[in-house]
Every structure is written in structure tokens, then in C-alpha cells.
Amino acid sequence: MPAFLRHLRAARIAREEKNTRRLRAVVPSVRDVDDAIRLLVRSNRRRPQVASIDRPPREVFCSNEITTSHYTAANFIFKNLYQQFQRAANVYFLVIGCLQLDVFFPGLSPTHWSTTIGPLVVVLTINAVKEAYDDYFRHKSDDAVNASVVTVVKPRKRAHGGGGGGGGGGDSTTTTTTTTTTEDVRWRDLKVGDVVRVKNNAEFPADIVLMQSSDATGVCYVETANLDGETNLKVKASAGVGVESGEDADAREVFEKLRDARVECEAPNNQLYKFEGKLVGVAAGVTEKVDAAATAGIEPAANDDDDDDDDASKDAVAPADVRRADGFSPTFFPREIPLGVDNVLLRGSTLRNTTWILGVVVFTGKDSKLMKNMTRAPHKVSQLERHMNLLVASIGLFQIVISATLAGTQQRWFKDEMEPKTHAGDAFRHWYLASTNEWPDVEGGVGAAFTQFIRYVVLLNALIPISLYVTLELVKVIQCGWIRCDRKLYDPIYDVRCGVRTTTLNEELGQCQCVLTDKTGTLTQNVMAFVKCSVDGVVYAADVTAKGDSADDSADDSDDSAAAAAKKDAFVHSLARSSPLQRAASENDPRVVDFLTHLAVCHTVVPAVATESNPGYAGRLYQASSPDEEALVTGAAALGRRLVRNANDEITLEVHAPDPDPDSNAAKSLNANSNAASTETFEILAVNEFSSARKRMSVVARDARDGSHALFLKGADAVVLERLSESHDAEILDATRAHLDAFARDGLRTLVLSKRALSKPEVDAWLSTYRDASTALTKREELLERCADAIERDCVLVGATAVEDKLQDGVPDAIATLRAAGMLVWMLTGDKARPGYARRFPYSTTAFARRALFLEDGLSLLSRRRISPLTPRWFQSRRASTPFDSASDVFQRHPDLETAVSIANTCRLIDKDGDLVVLQESDFSPYFDQGFLKRKAAEAEEDRACGGEFGLVIEGGALQYALLDSQRDAFLDLCRACNGVVCCRVSPVQKARVTALMKDKGGMITLGVGDGANDVGMIKAAHIGVGISGREGRAAVLASDFSIGQFRFLARLLLVHGRWSAKRNKEVVLYAFYKNFVYTTANVWFGFLSAYSAAPVYSTAAIATFNVLWTSLPTIAHAVFDQDVAADTVMNNPELYRETSRLRGRDFLVSAAFWSVGAAWHALWCYFACVASLGAAAASTRDGKPWDVHAIGIAAFTAVVLVVNGKVALRTNHWTKYNVAFVTLSVVLWFPFAVVISDAVRSIHWFPYDRVGAVNADP
To answer: Is 714 labelled a binding residue?
Structure first.
């Protein structure tokens, strides 16, 4: 073979080994006592390695010890200081402090080093203590987790024996003794390849492939709330090597059946919902399972925490033959069993309702998916902090300019004053000011000017307040406490308070300009009610006179607690109270039976035994990842097809008569309908799972009654209807489409159900392809989608469902309040666009609801000019599937000819022929009109200027093109011209991209609010992320900055706490610079009287304590307790929110400039008033001596303390006892302190001159 071909072959092999990580678990051979379970790993970052279960591996895998702490005892000081000095302000004060040290620059600094180093040390110490406190608990948490104990099951060496008899047909047999033992191992010591046993209610210590559980079918139930926030239980299935008895002692049989088996899987990654692997070489006789664990399920076993089985499992000994009596020989031959995410138990999840499980560890420590997903949250900086940084830079520039000016002025003064002059015939010069030409008193020139410049920089360093960051952080922490303790933000339904997960964004809540909200679970209750359906062209709904309907209506309009309780306990799936549907089900109408059977078979719902605390329905508690599926399965149960078992790839249904009164306690009792007429069993052969891209799911099932095979398909109408057979009844299809339109207009969530009969050869051929795809280690999802597309065709329509998700209480009022406060409110939802939003969702409070055009898979805009305010004319279309065919349709809807003509002429989406212009997804091609959005944005702005009101609805198919770089600006302009925007059928990534567009391009402060894992991207991308604690878990809450129980609390969070925090914290920043300006600028004024000598007017003690003792407490009290208006006033007048939301950086700098000018003016009066009074010739002490510079400095400092505390008192709108106490103490305690430092200063004679004018007096 040529050398270059050998190189190419070697490169190809290397690439293949890079793309796959193989885990091989080699089980001890019965003939070799030295063998052990081993794991061979090939990954994209390791060469092949072997790890043994019963002896140290030759190469060490990633340790299972985790570390979430940031520091250790050895690196805390250095690492913490390094992180703190990432802040420019700390570096600035460190440089100033170094300049003040005589060790480095003797005689340079006009002030003592303690005036800067002291406060800097205090600031650094406070932050270090806070970090150490937080990290201490991280260490405790890590130690507790790493020291947790898990049971590892190990094989012992086995004694060999031989002899005849027994076994397969008289052949000679080898009798062996299989022994297993258990050992409690700390999590940190767990290794790849260990076989572990985890008990009920315990967390999994690593990523584990499930091999066997206490359930005979090999399934277990897992709670993944720590991973994805979902609280509903997930069903996991074993890899197919377990035993049927379900006894813990049979762990030895798991070892035996795993002989020479290996697990091949992907490299470690952070994808929680993906695992691609296969189990290869399982001993013959093991039942192979298709990767359909999503449909496997059974009633979970009762919680059993007893440890009685431990003793039975330890040292259990049982004989085992190589050849069994039935002729079965567990010799090796290759057999591949696909492993998917439903066979893997991830670290961080918890075992529930299962006594124990056995599994093989595949990923440990940092390789586990939990740790791969532990990334730092994005660092969010508030707008105020950005403004503050800009102000710091501006003040720094001002400080440099002033220092350079004063230094240059001094050189000019020296030049003028030190020249020889003639006075009364004698030469005269200020000889005592002559330079010594020794550092730092160098001779005049550039060197002297630069030295004086540095001295002034050091003297005026307090213009930037060193205590600002600590004060502001302390204030924010207290403000967060007020938010947590606000009783009006408490949600009694889920028993949760408002949560605060960051202390850096309080004031950002008061500057929000655009709210981007999810719909399901955020605006709605996420309690799905099965209310309508369409079967064979007939709509079924609850009887108008039904008991439940009237009860619901009365509860809606009543605040009585009893009525609310009755509404809560009522059976929400009102379709079950439809008399026509009940009658058709009782008479076994074939179409209705097929519809109900479809609902009961095509799903991933797991039935569990109901409890007294959670009774479920008819003794069953249906656990599903989707509330929609739970609603559909429960509705089918009430109508005669009750799901009772979903386990081992089989679904069992109880067929009974429909419950005549679903609201009755008897219907919902634990033993309801126990005398079922019959049962039906379906074997689930494959599951094509739902995904956001497919928008559908299907199952291939075999009916045990007659052996027939069928495909059950359900999903969004757009994708299911196009997969129907061309020979389908057109009349029924048109009727169903009309029903879907009606359901959508009512704001209901719709699904379409279809079915296809399959022949056995067709199923066998397809399953072969499906198995190959399910065992692929690369591109598995793509291959499975191709398999699904191949079989999901030529279906027959079964029916359509309509599920209702009601709005939460107070949502319309909350959004009306937010809009009145000047905020844009956009809805980003994964649901389809439907005109029902206009009536059911909070946009009904605006003109948007009456003037929005809802189109499928397209972009639409309705704009109109208001011709006369007395005759409002508006236009609303049907769905895209039934657009206006011509202008005659407009005239039919509006008999008034003038009105119809006006509408047709003013709607820019109606062309000259009267047809509706619809922009479909297909229109967005490389050749589509690039200027379309730009023109529509210009037209929309023109119509808006004329008084038009309109809304924009865009679906995900068109949104992906509107977000292109070439279209983003035009799309943003179009959105700005609209009163409201609804983005439908959007993916989580699109939600995040729309949020980033408004934040980066739109220049708006954005707030993302959602309740599910699909909202995490939007929440993290927004300036402020708010999570809703709802039924979809805690993923959104864990990723958020703030969390609330219901959407209606958002208005109070923003308008009350956000507005207060924005105003208070702005005052804190401006006041911090103001007070430092007042007392620092006096040094500038003193320079005019001291030959610009850069000498301090205050003593060191006064400078060092100014920010800490005399001004800090009033500032904190003002920022914590001040209220310009009461909370109820803000809620009743939301326009007040615009005061803070419209604040921009320019406005902030202008305010800071006014505060600074005022501070300089106040400092001028404070200093020169003291000089004029104490520096006059007639002024003297009690012993007749003139007042010295120190005395004037103390007097000026006293005036400064009085002025700055008076300033905060004047700015206070709401006085409390704490404000009074802190302001009073800050002023009163200064006077005894002044006496003490005055006596101390006089005793050491810091100032060489007796009179303030001595430095300027003529000799």
C-alpha cells in the first residue's frame, strides 16, 4: 500500500475514534477468576483506557469529586484580591495609596496614607468577608455531597467445580458459585464501571445506565427538578439485562448476563435530553428492547425505605450452570440494544416510587451532564452602574484637568513672585519658598510641575468616593429584603414569595421599557381543560346546562372562597359532560371509539396510583411531561377509555361506559369503575417522539386483540393535515378545518389526530430501519426523523382536540398597567397564531386586539388611517387558510359602502384588485424583495402619524428571515410602529434572538418573563429575567434574576419596588459624589490662599472618617426608607413610572453636573465663611492667639458635615425614626470627635504656621 494511502487510512481511523466514546463493561468470566468488570473508554480526548471495578484501573478516569467553591484556604487571599482589583476603582485607590506611602515616594503626598489605604482596606475586607462567607457554605455543600454514600455491588471470586448430571441433556457441566457483595462507597470514590445500587428517594451519584430495578419490568421513576426544573416524574427503562423476579439478590444474574458485554456511547456533553449509545454483546437469551422507553411505564411501587433486603443481598450465594436445563447457553454473540436518554439516570436527579435500581456508572464528576451544564450565569450590569462608571470616568478626567491647571498655575505664580523686585530701593523675593532642589521639592520646570500635578491628584482623590460601591451594595441587599418580605407579592396558590437571585439589578426594575412574556403558564394558568373536539365533521362540547358549566361561571364571577374551592375541585375537562359524545361512546360509534382509543394510546403518559392527597381521577394519577397530554388522557378516561397500565412496551386500557357525572366524588374515587367491561392491550413497537422541529409525535402499535398494526399520529394541524391521504373525504376535511378555525378564534390549543393501518411486512421492514437508526452513535436524531417521515404519510383523519388554558387572575389589568406605564408588552409563544388572542388575552385592553391580522406561517401587518373618530373603522381577517378572495368579501362584511371602501383603501395589505397580500414563509427566498419590510415599516410609521393603531403578528417560519442581519433594522422599525407584537410558533432560540434584538439594536431595557425551560434563553438574554413559579417546574426560576408566583405581581414589582429602587439608588450615587465634592473642593479653594501648595485643609482623622462615620448612615437610611409617593399612588397612577424608565445616560450626567456645581458652590461658602470669620485680624482664641490653619480646617469640616447632612435631610420625602436618628447622630457625634482630634493635633504641632495668612503675608 502506498505510504500516502496508509497515512489517509490512519487519519480516517483517528477521526472515527475522535467522534465516538466507547464504554465497554466486561463482566467476569466464569472460567477465569482473575477477570473483573472493566470499562474500555475511547473518547475524542483520550486514548483507550481500562478501568476495573475490583482493583485500581490502569488509567484514571475523571474523579467523581465535584467542586463548586471558588476558593481554597491557600489561594483565597490572592485570588480574592485579584478578582477585586478587576474593578477599576479599586486599582485607582491602590495607586493613590501607593503614592501616599513614604516608603515609595517620600515627602510626595500631601496627605497621610491612612486616608486612602484605610478606607480601601475596609472596602476590600468587607467584600472578602462576604465572599468567604458565601464560599464557606459552598465548601460545606461540596463536602456533604462528596461524602454521601452509595452502595456498590461487586462480584467475588467464584469456586469452580465439575461433574456430570444436571444441565442440558446429560452433557458434562461445570458448576460454579456466583457471589455478590455490597460495599458502601463515598461518592468521591466512585469510579467509571462501578455497578451501583440506589435506593428510593436518593439522588444518583453519577450518570448511570439503568440495568435493573425493583420493578419486574425494569422501569423506575425519576424526578429531574434539579436538572431542568420539571417536577413531574419521568419513567426510565432498563437496558434489557435485568431479571424478571425483581429481587435484589438477583444482582448476580445481572453480572452473569453482562458477560463480555460493552456499552458504546457518545463522548461527555451537556445535552440533558440526548444520549446516543448501545449495549453490545449481551448474553444470549436476554430480551432485546427497542428504544421506546418513553412509552414504558407502570404503576410505581409504593415507597419502601426498609433496608431488610440489604442483608439478603449481601454475600448471597446461588449455584449457576454454564448450560441450563432448558438448553440455554449464555455464550457470547453480538447483540445490539439501543441506549437512549430514557435508559440513563443523570446525576442530580432523584429516584422516586422505586425501591432500588442497579446501574453501571458511565460518566463521573466533571464529565457528568449536570456538571457540564453548570456554567456561570451571564454577568448583568444595571444601567445605573453603567452610568456610574461613565460618571467616574468623567470625574477622573475633571480631576486630571483641575490638577494640571493648579500645577501650571503654581509654576506661573512662582515665576511671577520669585523674580527679584525693587521695593523702597531694596531687592525683595520670597526667600523662604525657594526650592531646596531635593526630592520632592525640585527646581521649577516640567519636573516641578509634574510633581505638583501628582500631589494634587493625590489630594483630590476623594472626588471619587471610595465608599460608594460598598454603600450601594449594602443598600441593594436591604432593598432585596423588602422585595422578599412584601406580602402583596406572596402567592397563596403555590405558597411562594417573591424570590431575588441577584442584588445588582434592583434599580433596573424601575427602568424597564419592553416586557417580553411567554404565554402558557406565564399569562395562563397552565391547567389544561379538554373542552371541545371534532370527530367526523361534528363538534362536541359540554352541554350548556351542565352542572359544571354553571358552577364554573358562578365561580368566575364570585370572590367567595367556597365558590373558588368548588371551582378548583370541579372536573375541568368539560367535554366529558357532553351528552351527544357520551351517547356516541356508549353506542360504540366507530369514529368516536377510534378517537378515544387514539387519545388513550398515542402519548407518553405514565399512570400512577392516586393518593388521598392527590386523588387524580378514577384512582389514577396521570403523570405527563405535557399538561396537554394529561388533559387528553384524563378526558378519554372519563369517556370510556381509561389508561391503567403503560409498562414494558405495552399499554392497557379499561373499556367502560362514560362516567355520567365526572364531577362526583364517586367518579374520582380510588375504586371507581372497578367492574370494567373489558380491557384492551396495545403493544408499542416504536415511538417517534415529539420535537419542536417536527411538531408532532406518533407511535407504531400492535393491537393484541387481532394482531393488527397501526400508526397513531397527532400534532399541529399544519403538519398533520399535509400527511393525510389524498383520497380522504374532502367534506369532512373542510369541516374539520373550519372547526379548527373556530377553536383558534376562541383561543384554544388545538391538535389534529390521524391514523394509518399498517401491514406486518411493512412494519417489519420499517422497524429494521428504525432499529438501525436508534442504535447509531452519530446523527441519531436525523436518522430517526427520516424514519418517522417515511411512515407518517397517507393517514386518515381521526379528529381534532381543543384544550383551554385560562388566563391567570389579574393578567389583563396587570398588562394594562404596564402599558400605561409606558412599557411595550410583547408576547413570544410557541403556540400558533390565532385571532382568539384578541378576545382572550390581555391585548384586548388595547386597540391591538381589534386591528391585528393573524396569518399562518407568514408575516402580517394591518394598518389603517382613522378617517373619523366618530365612525371608527377596523378590519380583521380570518386565518391564512381562508383569506379574503376579493374586495367583495370586504363589502359583504361591511354593508356600508363608504366604510368598506375606506377600509380597502387604507389597508396597505389589500392590493388594487382587492386581494389580500400575504407574506408567506416561502416568499422569503434568496430572491425575495429585500425592501419589503423596509417599505412596510415606512408605511406603518406614516399611518401611525395619522392616528392609525395596529398590531403585528409574526410566526416562527417568517421570523427566522426577519431576524436576518439584512432585515433586522427594518423589522425593528416595523415593530416600533406597532401597538403590540405577538411572535407565535417561535423556538426557544428565536425567543432569545428577539430579546437580544430589542436589547442591542432597539436600545431598550428589556425584561423577559416565563415559566418553563423553553424560556430560559429569553430570561438570560434580557436585561432582567423574571421566572414564574408554576406547573412547568423551576428551570425558569433557577435561571432568573427575580421570581414571582403569578404574572399579576409583575406590575407591583416594577412600579413600586423598581421605581423606588431606581430613584433611591440614583440619589445614593449622586449624593455620594456630591458630599465628596463638597469636602474635597475646599482643598482647591485653600490652594488660592496657599500659593497652590497642594496642602490639605483638613486633618488626617477628619479625612479618614468622613465617609465612614459622618455621612454613611444617613445615606443608607435615605436609600432604604425614602418614598416620594406611596405604593398605592403609583399603582393607581402608573404614568409615574415613566419618570425613571425614561432616564438616559445623558440625563444622568446632566444631573450629576448640576449636583457637582452645587457642591462646589457649597464648598466655597463653607470654606470662605470660616476663613472670613476666623481668619480676620480681630478674631482670636480665648488666650488672645490667632486661629491657626487647623482650626479653620476643623471649622470648615464642621460646616461641610452640617451641609451634607442637611442636603440629605432636604432630599428625604418620607421620614422614619431611623432617618431622624441617623442624621442626628451623624451631626451630634462629630463635635466631641472634633474636640478630641483638635487636642491631638495641637499636641504634635502638625501645622507650622500660626495664622492662615502667614503663607501669604509680607515680611
So the answer is: yes
